[in-house]
Amino acid sequence: MSPPLKWEYVMEAPVDESLCPRIRRSEQALMAHHEAVLRTYGLTMTQYTVLLTLAREGGMSGAQLARSCGVTQQSMSSVLANMDTKRLIGRETSPVHAKVQIASLTEEGRALLDRAYQEVAVLERALADAFTPAEHATLNALLDRATAVLIKQTRTTTSPPSP
Length: 163
Prior knowledge:
By secondary structure, the chain is mainly alpha-helical. It has seven helices and three strands, in the order αααβααββαα. The protein has a three-stranded antiparallel β-sheet with strand order 1-3-2. The longest helix is centred in the C-terminal third of the chain and has 23 residues, at 107-129. The radius of gyration is 21 Å and the shape is globular. It starts with 6 loop residues before the first helix and ends in a 10-residue tail after the last helix.
């Protein structure tokens, strides 16, 4: 059994200099911006992501959309029912499996996505303009690397480590 870690060794860097809070603040600012923009279109972030995913990938099942959007199948079922009621998506029975519904964009959904996307893209352009092309490429590479580390460090089990 290894000796317990002393707190002073764990906290080598002051909190205000750590990367995780900065990444979190950036993510919160991004989400707040997108949510404010999308709210004016009557969309949630998940609904927007569904529209964007269907526009890029074509028809998909609820399970596929849930995985793509990072939500549970139960949540996605509710999201899709709401979007179907608003006529943003249509659903048809899968030709492969009779119990699976395939969601696809309607004309109304495509038009709403096009309008919302134009406004969301304003932030993307503003961020790109804040950096030189080299800085932009470097930032993208650094964020990709940070994301890979975060994914690798995420525990795949829900049980705590053994002492």
